[in-house]
Amino acid sequence: MRRTLLPDLVLDAHGAQGGVGATFENGRIVEVGPAKEGERLPGMALAPGFINDHSHAFQRGLRGAVERIEPSHPGDDFWTWRERMYALAEVLTPGSVREVSRCCYEEMLSAGYTSVTEFHYVHHRPDGTPYGDSNVLAKAVARAAEDTGIRLLLLPVAYARGGLPRFRDPSVQSFLQRVDDLRGWAEGRLLVEVGVAAHSVRAVPRGWLEEIGRYAHRHDLPLHIHADEQPREIEECQAEHGLRPIELLAQTGFLGPSTSIVHATHANGKELDLLSERGTSVCACPTTEGNLGDGFLPTEEILERDLRLSVGSDSHVRIDPFEELREIETNARRLSGRRNVLVAEGETTPTPYLLRAGWGRTGLKSGDPADLTEIDLSHPALADVEARDLPSALVFGSGSGVIAGTWVEGRKVYERGGASG
Ligand SMILES: [Zn+2]
């Protein structure tokens, strides 16, 4: 079915234009340009949907519950937070995974995310034995995405040591067999794509990294891993391998243009150079990194090297793409003592750089999936904002409350205050 939407404005990373319609057919945008005929969206701007490139949906269950010191852990930090997260992961069931994931993905759609990358590492029964269907929990996540209508990149995550028994597979071969099975199952599912991931250099040994990297490159799959989130992880990696995490990933063939490093909070210049050489991207999770006390992303160094950047809401302490983007620039300002820091070459404001990180594109264009957001121009946060300032007003002065509707694959999947349809 062919539809044309006629909002008041169509927004891209650089500004906004009136008198423009967006036409889509079979889930794809086929035209963006001057249009008079179509479905009017009065008071709305249309923009690309945000990509949430790093999620652990079940951690949505910790919201508000971990913001206090437990008497048993007076010096609360990432590692004590992790104990609380493990306690939650311990009791998940296929039913509860689907339920918490659905709740999390509904919130994402309401915030303007149209796509989510789920870094899924709870695989087996609590004692570590596989379920009858060893991908049952991954499928519960996929079904939750389908329940809500969000686009999903599902990453089964390899875990060899540490963590809980239910995270771990006995061998890299058995892990990759499960990935094969899941890829077969997901074939033909419109909104679900399967990639692969390794949890971290602390949870996965060198031999696994080599195998998983080879597998991903052979099948041309997106490949993710947490790295350099915490100083202790770097020290442990140096003690075991004599290398920093990203150096180890380079040496094991893990890095490539389809690889994404999640966090890179404490990556040094040499590690960032390695990412640049291999065309590897970085996924920043600023609200979570701030909440966990991880540190500041080296954003200026990332921009200097022109590394591809994406954002993720990770632990879901907050689900708001505008806030993730704002934090990236705000952190850079705090670190540098300057304003308008992350300004890409040829530009005068950080806004386009940040929106490209959030959208994975610059604006709506023909050939892209019809994954869109409707922005309420009458929202108090946007009152008296000139059309040309709208992108910056969104990044610097708005929250997810300005999102009035969300479309995925040309279908409206969220409408504020009403039934979607
Ligand atoms: Zn994570």
Question: Can you put this structure into words, describing what you see?
Answer:
- The protein has 421 residues and is α/β, with parallel strands linked by helices.
- The protein is built from 13 helices and 17 strands.
- The protein has helices at residues 78-90, 94-111, 136-148, 172-186, 206-219, 231-241, 245-251, 269-278, 286-291, 299-304, 321-336, 351-359, 390-397, and strands at residues 2-11, 16-17, 20-25, 28-34, 39-48, 50-55, 113-120, 151-158, 192-194, 196-198, 223-227, 259-263, 281-284, 309-311, 372-376, 403-408, 411-415.
- The strands form two sheets. Strands 6, 7, 8, 9, 10, 11, 12, 13 and 14 form a nine-stranded parallel beta sheet that branches. Strands 1, 2, 3, 4, 5, 15, 16 and 17 form an eight-stranded mixed beta sheet that branches.
- Strand 3 and strand 4 (28-34) form a beta hairpin.
- Helix 2 (94-111) runs parallel beside helix 3 (136-148), helix 7 (245-251) packs parallel to helix 8 and helix 11 (321-336) crosses helix 12 (351-359).
- The model has no long low-confidence stretch (mean pLDDT 96).
- Bound molecules: zinc ion.
- Zinc ion binds next to loops.
State the major sheet.
9 strands, parallel
Order of helices and strands: EEEEEEHHEHEHEEHEHHEHEHHEHHEHEE
Quickly count the helices. Answer: 13
Give the proportion of residues in helices: 25-40%
Beta content comes to 15-25%
Radius of gyration: 21 Å
Number of strands: 17
Amino-to-carboxy terminus distance: 15 Å
Q: Helix and strand layout, with pairings?
A:
Layout: E1 2-11, E2 16-17, E3 20-25, E4 28-34, E5 39-48, E6 50-55, H1 78-90, H2 94-111, E7 113-120, H3 136-148, E8 151-158, H4 172-186, E9 192-194, E10 196-198, H5 206-219, E11 223-227, H6 231-241, H7 245-251, E12 259-263, H8 269-278, E13 281-284, H9 286-291, H10 299-304, E14 309-311, H11 321-336, H12 351-359, E15 372-376, H13 390-397, E16 403-408, E17 411-415
Parallel strand pairs: 1-5, 6-7, 7-8, 8-9, 8-10, 10-11, 11-12, 12-13, 13-14
Antiparallel strand pairs: 1-2, 1-3, 3-4, 5-15, 15-16, 16-17
The structure holds zinc ion (ZN).
Zinc ion is lined by residues 54, 56, 119, 226, 262, 314.
